[in-house]
Write a structure and sequence with these properties.
The complex is a heterodimer of chains A (181) and B (798).
Chain A lengths: L26 E2 L2 H10 L3 E5 L7 H12 L4 E3 L4 H6 L11 H8 L15 E5 L3 H14 L3 E4 L10 E2 L7 H13 L2
Parallel strand pairs in A: 1-6, 2-3, 2-4, 4-5, 5-6
Chain B lengths: L6 E4 L7 E4 L25 H10 E5 L5 E2 L7 E2 L12 H35 L16 H6 L10 H18 L8 H30 L10 E5 L9 E5 L7 H9 L7 E5 L1 H9 L4 E4 L4 H6 L5 E4 L8 H8 L3 E3 L16 H10 L4 E3 L3 H19 L11 H9 L6 H5 L6 H11 L3 H7 L7 H5 L6 H8 L1 H6 L1 E5 L7 H13 L5 E4 L10 H12 L3 E5 H7 L10 H4 L9 E5 L5 H14 L8 H11 L2 E5 L5 H12 L4 E3 L8 E5 L8 E4 L4 E4 L6 E5 L3 H10 L8 H19 L21 H12 L2 E3 L4 E4 L11 E2 L2 H8 L2
Classes of the chains: A alpha/beta (181), B alpha/beta (798).
Chain lengths: 181, 798
């Protein structure tokens, strides 16, 4: 099911040399797989990052995730454009760093008090920053992590491949995830 | 009567007998303060305090690699917190790694201090008095609190240094294979060695202030030229880079003696630049450490003097390629160069100017003072002011380089910021427009990894710099010269409003330049707080970046805000080692305002700071090990630190869980009860991704349990306003900070009371507009919090 079998997708390439020593690489997945994993989740959460402040398309996709019923924890100020488009994030104040710490605690009951999240999707982060958080979740939690940014993230459980060269392909993949939710 | 003095003595009547008297111990040591429980603490004496912090602010680990490679039994796969061959698990291995980083940082400052103190004692004698100006009586707050001494002379500083050196070695020992089993205990050791770091920094800066007559706590120090385009290129230019001004300082003396100071340009990179300007306001600041390749490749230097710390490890190579002679001075960075200490000045000058040697190792400050100007002048004469290498000879050469790019993106994948060099190149290829490449200059740290990754060997840094040359050249301004300590009189004035909260906070912008955003972002963040009349303190590379960014009227923040340690003031304390004056200022608040004794009384002071002093450290672009130990040292003192996103690569943070109610408590000395409190501050070390997030986090982390109602109202007003401005809504957690209706922002009081009632189930008496039920605790004007049992016992006695 890995994307490397399909020609239309570029190969998954690590974005910096610091991630060379990874014991388990993320499975680079197609959009349909991302949608299936999210659909199977009991408590999914989408966390949005600061790149939403620089790319309006990402805001539009996040809004569509919210419309599909995925709760959003907005970090780094990404709540502002989302709120302006009518989304009510379940968290606005906490940083990704803090939320990652919360997620690793078995006593965390989620932002609505209904229990911790089993599947967390990440959209719109600086790649090196997200990489560290995914590493932490990989080692110290059982949460299924899905990175749907333009960079392949080896520490995630599932990740989009590298789409840095072809932004239109990247957007089309995000749309495909949403179409299959 | 014969009076004992230091030195060697021969007793006339006794043949072959001489007596050497070292330190004279006074019969009765001055009783300046009753000794506290932990003078010169060993590595476990403050463990109890550390555990208090760590239980509340739980260590968070984000491994960079899944493996440990530190011994020959490995590499060991520690993923999913597995154990390695030695038995260490991943969390503990990461805690050990952070401890090692903090040891490196602490030893850098402490070795720097040792160098300085030994050299200065030789030059000025050990009896040189420690005089930091008439308004500084608490001269060494960190040393008083940690070491338990009140140094009066240069020689006295050795006692503090010896203690710090001993503790660094002990902590370093603990990181050997087969020692600690608990990550908590490694964290405790990281906190300990980082506390020693602040002692080392304080020693270093006090020594150089008194010996070199740097500004002594003066708020309005001179403004000096700062930026890439500051030097008069028609003069020989001496460039200094590093952190230890001891070696380059005599250049100024020599030129001054010769009456030729105005014939040369002396400009620096990183903290040596700060300290050169503290010595002579005729020196200039080129910029932060990442300007090294910009300055060298642009051909702005005629000679480079390097000392120690954070300097490029390939500086000699970079200088060689640009045809600039290098004088390496510190024994920490000899750079493979021949030691020419014993050579006559003329021979050294000849070797460097003729090119027989690309560089020399010259650890003799006085000789550096003579050699550097002579070399600079001779090199300048050779090129006659026509500097050979300005990134490219002409635009044709630049475009030839641009046209080599195939958009393979290897550079993007190697870049620490994933800068889209490929997009800039292809746009330039198609249109000739360099603007996309120029934009990259604003964030490029010129590390050079891209050039190594490029299969076409494109000089990518040169392309980026040339593309933005005019803007780069014009990005100049003024930096206020580092003032050193904060005056006791200033503390007396602001102590109460800081502790009570009327001054909403102290933001200490400290550290390196690995920003996630353009350089101007640091100014945008800090000005938000200056306008709101927080106190902003700065040092190091952050302090010089502030001096390079001008507003529409051409003014830097230093020209817009005064240098006083007061509401709305922007205080540049100086170089890296001057950071001790920031930790020192928080300590002085406890001492001068609250009369808490300092001597060997660390836990009580740190507990006071954590609960009462709304100071927050901010390192927007941390990258060095020193930044790790500086931040961790602040953390032990109860000061939270916000770092930029690259700070997550330190692999460890201290992040509390505000939803865990049992973690947030204190003993109240007034009511003699254990009381649940609001989670303030809720993190001790946390990363942010954007400038918007930095601003909001800094404001929320200034809140302290001890705030008065007036203070809390001011802090909440700023926090809520900033959250609404940048996040588009009220904060998620604002109700936890409300103890009574008086804490609420005046303008929004009714609206917020309604939200508390409708959304949070609080009971409101609408006739009186008072909160009847809901807060974690009610406001009590006599609230006197502490986390430390011994402090509780001390102040509840009787």
């Amino acid at each position: 099911m890995a994307v490397t079998k399909e020609e239309k997708f570029p190969v998954a390439k690590r974005f910096d040399i610091a991630d060379v020593q990874v014991s388990r690489d993320a499975t680079a997945v197609k959009p349909k797989i991302v949608a299936n994993v999210i659909k199977k989740a009991k408590r999914p959460l989408l966390i949005t990052g600061g790149q939403l402040l620089k790319d309006e398309k990402l805001v539009e996709f996040a809004v569509k995730f919210a419309e599909k019923g995925i709760p959003i924890a907005a970090t780094a100020g990404s709540s502002k454009p989302l709120i302006e488009k009518g989304v009510k994030p379940v968290s606005k104040t906490y940083t990704l760093h803090q939320i990652t710490q919360f997620l690793q605690d078995e006593e965390f009951k989620g932002f609505d008090g209904s229990g911790n999240y089993d599947t967390v999707v990440f959209l719109g982060f600086l790649p090196y920053y997200l990489s560290r958080m995914l590493s932490s979740l990989k080692h110290f939690s059982k949460i299924t992590t899905i990175a749907i940014d333009e960079f392949y993230q080896p520490h995630a459980k599932f990740s989009f491949t590298n789409l840095t060269k072809d932004r239109e392909l990247y957007y089309s993949m995000l749309q495909e995830v949403l179409d299959n939710l | 009567m014969f009076e004992l003095k230091k030195g060697a003595f021969v007793v006339d009547e006794l043949r072959n007998v001489s007596i050497h008297i070292g330190k004279i111990v006074e019969e009765e040591e001055e009783e300046w303060e009753e000794a506290g429980p932990t003078p010169k603490p060993g590595i476990i004496e403050l463990r109890k305090w550390d555990h208090k912090l760590l239980e509340r602010y739980e260590p968070f680990y984000a491994p960079m690699q899944d493996f440990c490679n530190l011994c020959t039994m490995g590499p060991c796969d520690l993923s999913m917190n597995k154990k390695g061959a030695c038995g260490i698990d991943l969390k503990t291995a990461k805690a050990r790694l952070v401890t090692i980083a903090c040891c490196i940082g602490a030893s850098a400052h402490t070795a720097h201090a040792r160098h300085l103190v030994d050299h200065l004692i030789e030059e000025y004698g050990e009896d040189l008095p420690i005089d930091l100006g008439g308004n500084v009586n608490v001269e060494a707050p960190v040393m008083r609190t940690v070491v338990g001494i009140k140094p009066k002379t240069l020689g006295d500083l050795r006692e503090a240094l010896s203690w710090a050196e001993k503790e660094i070695v002990k902590v370093l020992h603990s990181v050997h294979i087969g020692n600690e089993e608990s990550y908590f205990d490694y964290e405790s050791k990281a906190l300990h060695v980082s506390m020693a770091d602040h002692v080392g920094m304080e020693v270093a800066d006090i020594a150089q202030i008194v010996a070199y007559n740097f500004p002594k706590a003066e708020p309005n120090t001179p403004l000096v030229d700062t930026g890439f385009g500051i030097v008069d290129v028609s003069k020989p230019t001496i460039v200094v880079v590093g952190h230890n001004v001891m070696y380059a300082r005599p250049v100024t003396d020599y030129l001054d003696e010769q009456g030729r100071l105005d014939d040369f340009e002396i400009a620096g990179l990183c903290c040596t630049a700060h300290d050169m300007t503290r010595y002579s306001a005729k020196a200039k600041i080129f910029g932060p450490i990442y300007y090294q390749l910009r300055v060298i490749r642009a051909g702005l230097a005629d000679v480079v003097i390097s000392d120690e710390q954070c300097i490029r490890a390939d500086l000699l190579d970079a200088c060689k390629k640009a045809g600039v002679p290098l004088i390496a001075t510190s024994d920490a960075a000899v750079r493979g160069l021949p030691d020419v200490s014993e050579w006559p000045v003329e021979k050294i000058v000849d070797a460097l100017v003729s090119g027989k040697l690309p560089g020399v190792f010259l650890p003799v400050p006085e000789k550096v003072g003579q050699v550097a100007p002579l070399v600079a002048e001779a090199v300048f004469r050779k090129h006659g002011g026509e500097r050979k290498y300005k990134f490219f000879e002409n635009d044709e050469q630049l475009m030839e380089e641009v046209n080599k790019c195939t958009q393979c993106m290897n550079c993007v994948f190697a870049c620490p910021h994933s800068l889209r060099v490929d997009q800039g190149m292809v746009h330039a290829q198609k249109t000739g427009d360099l603007s996309k490449l120029a934009k990259l200059e604003e964030i490029c740290i010129a590390c050079g990894k891209c050039e190594q990754a490029c299969p076409k060997n494109i000089k990518i840094i040169n392309v980026i710099m040339r593309a933005n040359y005019d803007n780069l050249y014009n990005k100049t301004g003024k930096t206020r010269v580092g003032r050193g300590p904060i005056q006791d009189t200033e503390i007396r004035k602001v102590g109460q409003p800081i502790v009570f909260g009327q001054i909403p906070g102290v933001i200490a912008a400290v550290g390196c330049i690995n920003y996630p955003d353009e350089m101007k972002s640091i100014v945008e963040i800090l000005e938000e707080f200056l306008k709101r009349r927080y106190i902003v303190v700065t040092s190091g590379c952050h302090a010089m970046d502030i001096g390079m960014i001008k507003d529409e009227e051409g003014k830097t923040l230093y020209e817009k805000y005064p240098g006083d340690f007061d509401a709305g003031g922007l205080v540049n304390v100086g170089s890296c080692v001057s950071n001790a004056h920031i930790s020192g200022a928080t300590i002085k608040i406890a001492n001068i305002f609250a009369m808490r004794p300092l001597r060997g009384n660390y836990a009580e002071i740190a507990d006071y700071v954590l609960n009462r002093v709304g100071a927050v450290g901010f390192s927007w672009g941390p990258y060095s090990h020193k930044a790790a130990s500086i931040a961790t040292g602040f953390n032990r003192l109860g000061v939270p630190v916000v770092v930029g996103p690259h700070g997550t690569k330190y692999r460890r943070a201290y992040i509390g869980k505000p939803w865990k109610k049992d973690k947030w408590w204190v003993y109240d000395i007034k009511t003699k009860q254990k009381i649940n409190i609001e989670p303030a501050p809720d993190s001790l070390l946390v990363a942010v991704e954007t400038k918007e997030e930095a601003i909001v986090q800094l404001a929320r982390l200034c809140i302290r349990p001890n705030d008065t109602s007036a203070g809390r109202q001011i802090k909440l007003t700023h926090y809520i306003e900033l959250h609404q401005k940048y996040y588009g809504d009220l904060p998620d957690d604002w109700p936890v900070y409300v103890r009574s209706e008086a804490d609420l922002p005046l303008k929004q009081r009714e609206e917020l009371l309604r939200i508390l009632e409708e959304q949070h189930g609080w009971k409101i008496d609408w006739d009186k507009k008072k909160i009847v039920d809901g807060p974690i605790r009610p406001y009590d004007a006599g609230f006197n919090p502490t986390l430390v049992e011994e402090v509780y016992a001390k102040y509840t006695k009787g």
